[in-house]
Amino acid sequence: MHPHRRAPAAPAANGCGRSATWPFLVLVAAFGVTGYAVAEPPVSTALVAVDAAGAVLGCVALFAWRRLPVASTVVPAALVVVAPAIGIPAAINLTRTTIHRRLPVGAALTALLVASWLAMPLLYPIAPLPYTGHLVIVVASGVALFAWGSFVRARRQLLLSMARRAEAEQQQRVDEAKQLEREHIAREMHDVLAHRLSLLSMHVGALEFRRDAPTDEVAASLKVIRNSTHQALQDLREVIGVLRTGITDGNGDYPQPTLATVRELVNAAQAAGVQVTYDEHVDDVDSVPASVGRTAYRVVQEAMTNARKHAPGMPVTLDVHGGPGAGLTVRARNALPPTDEPTGVPGAGTGLIGMTERAELAGGRLSHGRTPAGEFGLEAWLPWPT
């Protein structure tokens, strides 16, 4: 809450309600009757009537504080000189105004009320209390009222500041979560695009080197190229939309593969002419957790993509097995090409790094490299809770 803006009164600080008015009148009447009875010298009937009228005006000021906080504090504070009974509502309104107004306003009103209390003995006797004692009590009371109002005001501002800070931190966490999800989707789409484009490149290369291929094979390859190009364009459109506009929830229309779709991936590769041997030992594929299945799918996809990029025409062996508690293991092996000549298929060189990070984020691990048998091997283990 800005310190220079008017703040609505809190429910606890609303003006004196009807339930509090009558006790106040009874309290003022009791103290007034007792004080006037023992006062030396006696107080005149006119001053008693003025004081009683001040008590009624004090109740009005308590009710009016919500709409006119400063005015309903100034008037009672100034009238304390002629009507001491109005001092109690003046003190109440002073405290509330100090809470909801700037400190200079509260300090000025406190000074006015203290001055009126100090001038009150000119009309009303305070004997047997000496004036010095009256001075000490009045100043101490004014300081206490101002200090209490300032403390409550500072505490409310602190709580409001903490609430705003918590809200800002929550919003920051939401923004970070959205950004992380966008990056996750971008990585997903990168893997999909890499797979599609590598498949497309393989078919184009086959057509380039086999210009005398039968018409049926050429038509089949062109069909695969057309479908892969169409799907790649759709994937690229999705990733651009994600990076441009962000997401609003976790149910976007981007691919969410599972372990059950690995078979489709293998079938597509086999249809494209890749020699793939797939061995799966999972009792219930549908029971694999979605995050585990998705990560396993990406690992297989990356293994297939690497094989097509760096060892075209070489056979690929895939093995997926595991169960609840033991985890899910994905192994991929492919023979290395006879030479180290470049295949002509470009690569960013970060696919395996990304897969390693993805596996570690899932709580698993991934290793890759040349095997003693002279093949390139990739093995990933992913946790599968019971």
Structure characterization notes:
With 386 residues, this protein is α+β, with helices and mostly antiparallel strands. It has helices spanning 18-38, 45-64, 71-79, 87-100, 103-119, 131-209, 215-245, 262-271, 290-310, 351-361; strands at residues 276-281, 316-323, 327-335, 365-370, 375-382. A 5-stranded mixed sheet has the order 1-2-3-5-4, covered by helices on one side. The model is unreliable at 1-20, 247-253 and 344-348 (pLDDT under 50).
Write a brief caption for the model.
The chain has 386 residues and is α+β, with helices and mostly antiparallel strands. The protein is built from ten helices and five strands, in the order ααααααααβαββαββ.
Largest sheet: 5 strands, mixed
- The average pLDDT score comes to 75
> How are strands sequenced across the largest beta sheet?
1-2-3-5-4
What general outline do the C-alpha atoms trace? rod-shaped
Features:
alpha+beta; five-stranded mixed beta sheet; 60% helix
Topology record:
Layout lengths: L17 H21 L6 H20 L6 H9 L7 H14 L2 H17 L11 H79 L5 H31 L16 H10 L4 E6 L8 H21 L5 E8 L3 E9 L15 H11 L3 E6 L4 E8 L4
Parallel strand pairs: 1-2
Antiparallel strand pairs: 2-3, 3-5, 4-5
Helix pairs in contact: 1-2, 2-3, 2-4, 3-4, 3-5, 4-5, 4-6, 5-6, 6-7, 6-9, 9-10
